[in-house]
Amino acid sequence: MSDPTTSHSDDPPRDGKPLATTRAAAGRSEPLAATRDDPVVENRRPHRPRHRVLDDTILRDASPSGHDLIVRYTPNDRSNHWITAISFILLALSGLAMFHPAMFWLSALFGGGQWMRILHPFIGLVMFFSFALLALRFWHHNLLDRTDVQWLKQIGDVLENREEDLPEVGRYNAGQKLLFFTMVACLLLLLLSGIVIWRRYFSFYFPIGLIRLAAVVHAASAFVLIVGIVVHIYAALWIKGSIGAMVRGTVTLGWARKHHPRWFREVIESERR
Ligand code: HEM
């Protein structure tokens, strides 16, 4: 077990060795205890911020190349997003396996048909509640305004990468906002229809006609959500730096200025105040 006095909690030991051992091997003779004020630790992480990192904070010289970064997503935002994303993937795979016999082989990933059928609705609840939290966090950022209508009218410029001709985009563009509300609608429909077709606990409360209708609504909204998420992933890969935003939480000032200029301006102005 490593000695807490010889290693720094934020600074994992290299090669599995405690910091003290690494430094001793390097022939250093100063005391082994590494603290936040230790010049060796300071040199390795010269600009590490010590305050609590909030959304839209500018981190000075925080990138490996020494550029400033803006915090776009907090650790809570990111955990919330990736729990939703992982449960979505599990649901899409198990849902497709139940949808058509040609895809039933996917059930092997869940321990067979029985287990998959048991697990699918519970994972559905995880996704619904996780997404509900995510939607509450981001709701106010996704409200459409007049510039969004103009952005949609100029969708040709968007697709041809003529961003300089577009109205200034805020934290999210109109496409992201519409997709956000498509996700909200699909998740609600999936929950409601899913409860009606959840045979083990609920279906016997409903007439057969409603159960059949719910099965169609469930499949249709799952289809729309899957297509929507494919677009979402495509856009995330297309706009270089977006995945990094959701993985590390930060974006460069250049990324913000190019893709979300109004948001960039707002962050800079709030920093000056
Ligand atoms: C499965 C793979 C997924 C990937 C790779 C992915 C990637 C990303 C990335 C990179 C962003 C940041 C975009 C930006 O800051 O401009 C983002 C935002 C977001 N993602 Fe995902 N995502 C995935 C799945 C999902 C799922 C399943 C949902 C919900 C059902 C979801 C909901 C959201 C929401 C709500 C945002 C914030 C954008 C907004 O509020 O309009 N994502 N995602």
SSE layout and pairing:
Blueprint (H helix, E strand, L loop, with lengths): L18 H7 L13 H6 L13 E2 L9 E3 L3 H25 L13 H26 L7 H8 L1 H5 L14 H23 L11 H31 L3 H7 L1 E3 H7 L1 H12 L1
Antiparallel strand pairs: 1-2, 2-3
The chain binds protoporphyrin IX containing FE (HEM).
Q: Which properties best describe this structure?
A:
binds protoporphyrin IX containing FE; disordered N terminus; three-stranded antiparallel β-sheet; mainly alpha; single chain; 273 residues
Q: Can you walk through the features of this model?
A:
- There is one protein chain.
- This protein has helices at residues 19-25, 39-44, 75-99, 113-138, 146-153, 155-159, 174-196, 208-238, 242-248, 253-259, 261-272, and strands at 58-59, 69-71, 250-252.
- The chain is mainly alpha-helical and 273 residues long.
- Helix 4 (113-138) crosses helix 7.
- The longest helix is centred in the C-terminal third of the chain and has 31 residues, at 208-238.
- It is elongated, with a radius of gyration of 24 Å.
- Mean pLDDT is 84; it is low at 1-46.
- The structure holds protoporphyrin IX containing FE.
- Protoporphyrin IX containing FE is lined by residues 72, 81, 84-85, 88-89, 131, 134, 138, 141-142, 172, 176, 180, 183, 229, 232-233, 236, 242-243, 245-246.
